[in-house]
Amino acid sequence: MVATRREVAQAANVSLRTVSNVVNGFESVAPQTRERVLRVIAELDYRPSEIARILKRGRSGLVALVLPELDTPYFAELTRAFVELGASRGYTVVIDQTDGDVARELELISQTDRGALFDGLVVSPLGLHAEHLEGISPERPVVFLGEDSHTGFDQVMIDNFTASKSAVAHLIAQGRTHIAAIGAEVNRPASSTIRLAGYKQALDDAGLAFDPRLVGYVDAFRRPDGAAAMSALLDLAEPPDAVFCFADPLALGAMRVLHERGIRIPQDVALVGFDDIEDGHYSTPSLTSISPDKTFIASKALELLTARLDGTYLPPASYLAPYELIVRESSSN
Fold first, then answer.
1. Which domains are assigned to the chain?
2. From CA 178, how far away is CA 172, in angstroms rounded?
3. H or E segment at 66?
4. Of the candidates 93, 114, 117, 69, the residue with the CA atom closest to the CA atom of residue 220
5. pTM of the predicted model as reported, rounded to 2 decimal places
6. Whole-Å CA distances, 185 to 84, 227, 248
7. Which of 184, 246, 286, 322 has CB 3.0 to 4.6 Å from 328, enough for a Cys bridge?
8. What is the number of helices (H) and of strands (E) in the chain?
9. pLDDT (tens digit, 9 = 90+) per residue, 215-243?
10. pLDDT tens figures, 140-159
């Protein structure tokens, strides 16, 4: 049977409070007494109740990373950054998938009171928008990721508009004039709307007309969607000479179709993706991509969350993660 704290106190001839002070690392215990209690704890194989300690401290050491989906490479790589950086701050990062369900996202945010299972949340919402947060205190330990502005809450975002402009400007600088975009989402337009706006602005800045026929619509940022959109673009009377894909998996799907049709990359069609996932480094040809700083995103989100948990009063902050256009074989002539 598992020993109890009372049995430890009796065997060490000390009070229950003294055992608690030793277990919780308080310094108000004489060294000899501490040594005796620790020896008894080892002999009796006493294991403190973690749940009881959580209730006493009001902290669990658990932080939830709430994502819309787990099976996309970008979120997988972002999760790794959160887990590694969270451990360095003493957090265990727990992952939850919402599939963009508003009710689930709100339910998790509501579970951030003192003594809750999770000390705080980092949320990448898909269905949740500003109007859903009315009445929720900005003092809750919650940090948002993504594109929507959640006024009154801490957020870390990617500058999708400027980054997309950079991707298309790069293609224009390569001499491409008939540039398509793959990734306008039918059902979930959050980031795709902003990336489409950046695409249009880059065309306008270069004096190129926007042609809606060159926009490939998708249901999700996945390889099959990219492949289907690329096939449709190639069937146009005047196919594109370059494509900006709103996510790397879309570009990898498009790349497969181009290969099957005997179209050379980048000689005939240049490709640029977004997110700089590891798969793109090893594709043939390697994929040019917008690379958001995932380490910055994780580090800044955890920094904001820690400040909120520590009770440091700071106005809600919003940060843009830096990004870089990594030029590889798929777009360089």
1. 5-48 (1.10.260.40), 62-158+294-322 (3.40.50.2300), 160-292 (3.40.50.2300)
2. 9
3. strand 62-67
4. 69
5. 0.80
6. 32, 15, 15
7. 286
8. 12, 12
9. 999 998 999 999 999 999 999 999 999 99
10. 788 999 877 677 789 999 99
Q: Looking at the chain, list the stretches that DSSP marks H as alpha helix, in order from N- to C-terminal side.
A: 5-12, 16-23, 31-44, 50-57, 73-88, 102-109, 160-173, 190-205, 223-234, 248-260, 278-282, 294-309
Give the residue from 193, 232, 202, 227 showing the smallest Cα distance to 214.
232
Q: From CA 17, how far away is CA 20, in angstroms rounded?
A: 5
Please tell me the distance from the alpha carbon of residue 144 to that of residue 164, in angstroms, as a whole number: 21
Indicate the residue type of 228.
Answer: A
Q: Are 127 and 102 in contact (CB under 8 A)?
A: yes
Q: At what angle do helices 73-88 and 248-260 cross, to 10 degrees?
A: 150
**266 Cβ neighbours under 8 A, 6+ residues apart:** 174, 285, 329, 330, 331, 332, 333
